[in-house]
Design brief:
475 residues; 2 domains
């Protein structure tokens, strides 16, 4: 029996690296500290041992599989390489080199998740920080369109709501947690304030919130001059109420509900956009008051903000709000990335090509155009004639037209043991799992690199090994 400490987990974007895993006779017997998503994932590594190589559904020799896959890629006129979020830096770099060699389009799973967020930050920038910075400083935590209790079970425990921070010695008691979502989620049940906003009205709510927090504060009393009497009233302070009379105007006004002009976008930022005006609810007004009184705030936003035809405009509104709030304190925004190393995939692709996802290399130099060069869109238009899947976890999220076309063209799949490819694969390579069978480097949702270590032996190659061999064979 062997016990491993400080083990990293890549099930979600938190990439928790504080787990203790016990291995006995080549099997994981315990994973202390693992959440409800990670526990079954660790134990599932004991249960499957599919063939290393499959051609057209039949086990085959590795040499024949490499020859068949290389021939598919070599003869394709518009090859697509997609996935990468279950890989590590080594595999992602090999995939980028292969895409460059064959003139392919390469895309990450960001195109089915936070692509609008990436486009938004390219337009307006992003005030952000690491999860550790937020843990130590943020006394206001806002989850917008995200349900981490379900999707990132240890996020609140380790990084946002519950942990003791350097300047938050009482942990949860020192924080005010807000959830903004279209329905009450599990996270909302644990929050101090729930603000209900339909996904189709997030853009309106964010712009209204920007207006609410811009309300000028009441003027401060002027400092007294040297010759000014101490009992002389400040001209900017309210007059005292006269006995038996009415209280004069104190220069404060009630907050009026904004009336916004009609949206210029047909269909709006989300599907089913309701007509204006958008009247702020008492909860949204309370959130504005909390924002203006917070010393440091952290906005975590998820897929609820990245849906719809113009979702990047919604994310832009949030990023601009956070940027403006830094005039009064420290405020940060952070995307809630879904899969273990999607942040690493975007980082490696940006390092190698200059762009984070949706990169076309058919002309011998990188071109970037979300929508034109993103995997689901290419497949939905029927343009790709061969696909290399480096992990297939988001293929089921593709639109029906993309899935239909994917079933008509040759697919080369690189996937871990037990993973189910939702479309028939001409060639499938079973690859080792990083952090279980192979070492590597994964990036947490805040782009902090986390080392992964070997827990179990395996005869399966890593995806980097397979990709490098394909790189040699395509010529």
């Amino acid at each position: 029996m062997q016990t491993f400490t400080s083990v990293g987990c890549t099930v979600c974007g938190c990439v928790c690296d504080d787990l203790t895993v016990t291995v006995d006779q080549g099997r994981v017997t315990e994973a202390r500290g693992a959440c409800q998503l990670a526990e079954p994932w660790f134990r599932a590594q004991n249960n499957t041992s599919p063939p290393a190589v499959v051609i057209d559904g039949q086990p085959a020799e590795p040499g024949a599989a490499f020859d068949r896959a290389a021939e598919i890629l070599r003869t394709a006129r518009y090859p697509l390489i997609y996935g990468l979020s279950r890989s590590t830096t080594e595999g992602q770099r090999a995939a980028t080199a292969l895409a460059d060699r064959i003139g392919a389009t390469i895309d990450t799973t960001a195109s089915t998740g936070h692509a609008p967020s990436i486009v938004a930050l390219q337009q307006v920038g992003e005030s952000t920080c690491t999860l550790g910075e937020g843990k130590n400083r943020a006394d206001l935590v806002v989850f917008w369109g995200s349900d981490p209790v379900v999707t990132h079970p240890r996020h609140m425990e380790r990084y946002s709501a519950d942990p003791v921070g350097r300047w938050l010695p009482n942990g949860r008691a020192d924080r005010f947690v807000v959830v903004v979502d279209e329905e009450e989620t599990e996270t909302a049940k644990r929050a101090d304030l729930f603000v209900q906003v339909p996904n189709a009205r997030n853009w309106d709510a964010l712009w209204t919130l920007r207006m609410l927090v811009r309300q000028p504060p009441p003027p401060a009393p002027l400092p007294k001059g040297k010759g000014e009497k101490q009992n002389q009233p400040n001209p900017l302070t309210p007059f005292p109420k006269k006995e038996g009379g009415t209280e004069p105007n104190t220069q404060t006004t009630e907050l009026q509900a904004p009336v916004l002009s009609p949206s210029p976008f047909r269909g709006g930022v989300g599907e089913g956009l309701q007509p204006h005006p958008f009247t702020p609810s008492p909860a949204l007004t309370q959130l504005a008051a909390r924002i203006t009184s917070a010393r440091c705030g952290m906005f975590f936003f998820g897929s609820g903000l990245t849906r719809g035809k113009l979702a990047h405009r919604t994310v832009e509104a949030l990023l601009q709000l956070v940027s403006e709030l830094n005039d009064r304190g420290r405020f940060y925004a952070r995307r809630m990335r879904r899969f273990g190393d999607v942040a690493g995939a975007d980082s490696v692709l940006a390092w190698q090509t200059g762009y984070p996802f949706g990169v076309n290399l058919s002309r011998g130099y990188p071109r970037y155009n979300p929508g034109e060069f993103t995997g689901p869109n290419i497949l939905a238009r029927g343009e790709a004639d061969a696909v290399l899947l480096v992990g297939s976890e988001t293929v089921a999220d593709f639109p029906p037209a993309a899935l239909e076309h994917l079933r008509k063209i040759p697919v080369i799949a690189l996937d871990s043991p037990g993973a189910e490819v939702p479309v028939p694969a001409a060639v499938r390579f079973t690859t080792a799992v990083y952090g279980i069978h192979r070492p590597g480097t994964a990036y947490r949702m805040d782009e902090v690199p986390i080392p992964l270590r070997v827990l179990l032996p395996t005869d399966y190659p890593s995806d980097a090994d397979v990709l490098n061999e394909l790189l040699k064979r395509v010529g």
